[in-house]
Amino acid sequence: MITNIHSTTTLHNGIHMPMMGLGVFQVEEGRELIEAVKSAVKHGYRSIDTAAVYANESGVGQGIREALEEGGLSREELFVTSKVWNADLGYEETLSAFYASLERLGLEYLDLYLIHWPVAGKYKDAWRALEKLYREGRVRAIGVSNFQIHHLEDLLADAEVKPMINQVEFHPYLTQKDLLRYTREQGIQLEAWAPLMQGGLLDQPVLKEIAGSHGKTVPQVILRWDLQHGVITIPKSTKEHRIAENASVFDFELSLEDMARIDALNQDLRVGPDPDNFDF
């Protein structure tokens, strides 16, 4: 039951993952990043999502340490995600990349480690490395990002451990219904990146109308739509008031009609690369 910012979902290996977290894509190292992480934790967020290619793992780690100290929290109360970049896919390369991320973050383990993109011919070796890290307890859950159905089918044909997460671009203009249905059938949790379409939906008329009827903002409506679809969401912001606003989505509920109207906005429109045609 999604009732507050601390609400979690249970991954297929029994690990509890927060339904909402903070994304830090394109947030540069520095005080702004550190304060964003601290603000998120202060406002109840317990999940932070970064990646090697974001080049900000050190700042995220610093923000986590300061947030834990100031908030009197333990490391175990946070859920930290990072991802291996395309250039480091491969068995040994992925193992090295993982430990480099861990060092930059200043952590002893990760809660979730993902393959960032499905680079043809490379992600299976990388997955074997993630399975090793998982078995050794260096990471509590493993998964993938930007995998389409055919990528998942290919991976599952040889995988010994099924991915717990598939993090993909997901918003009202890209609802990925078939992928959402497939991951549910497989017991793989879908997670949304760019849930607000990087600000591209703020003036969408249907969303503005629904937001007005609930006394909420368009971002709040979109994030609520994610959650009611059972999709984990990680909106990005560095502004404390936005971080707080994004977390204020647990005091209203979208009707079935609202959900259907938002679903109908789908245009199969991406703001990020197409996983099948990404120029690696």
UniProtKB/TrEMBL annotation:
Keywords: Oxidoreductase. It comes from the Bacteria. GO terms for molecular function: oxidoreductase activity. The record marks K83 as: Lowers pKa of active site Tyr. Residues 21-266 form the NADP-dependent oxidoreductase domain. The active site is at Y54. It holds the Pfam family Aldo_ket_red. The keyword Oxidoreductase applies. InterPro entries: AKR, AKR5G, Aldo/ket_reductase_CS, NAD(P)_OxRdtase_dom_sf, NADP_OxRdtase_dom. Belongs to the aldo/keto reductase family. This is Glyoxal reductase.
